Amino acid sequence: MDNIILRCDNNINGIFTAIYDAFVYKNQMQKENHEVYRDNISIEIGIGGNYTLFSKMIDILKKIINHY
Predict the structure, then answer these.
(1) What does the CA dihedral 43, 25, 15, 51 come to, rounded to 10 degrees?
(2) What is the pTM of this model?
(3) What is d(CA 4, CA 54) in angstroms, rounded to the nearest whole number?
(4) How many whole angstroms separate alpha carbon 68 and alpha carbon 36?
């Protein structure tokens, strides 16, 4: 399995969204690979930056919930 790098905005909403999405990805991978799962998810702050070989880069968009 390739590494997963979640890239988020440098603000509190972007960081917490990336943490939540990392938790969701981790749970999905654990269900698919019960015995061979290894934690290969990391979070980078800031969109852009360097690319890494054999990694899946995912840009995290802010999820804004409006309560009216």
Answers:
(1) 30
(2) 0.70
(3) 9
(4) 45
**36 CB-near residues (< 8 Å, 6+ apart):** none
Digit-coded pLDDT (tens) for 2-59: 788 888 888 888 888 889 988 988 888 878 776 666 778 888 887 666 667 777 777 7
Please state, in angstroms and rounded to a whole number, the distance separating the CA atoms of residues 6 and 46: 10
Structure-block tokens of residue 13: 């909403």
Alpha helices in 1-68 (DSSP H): 12-32
Q: What is the sign of the dihedral through the CA atoms of 7, 9, 10 and 11?
A: negative
Enter the tokens of residue 27. 């749970």
Sequence-distant (6+) residues with CB within 8 A of 56 are 2, 3, 4, 5
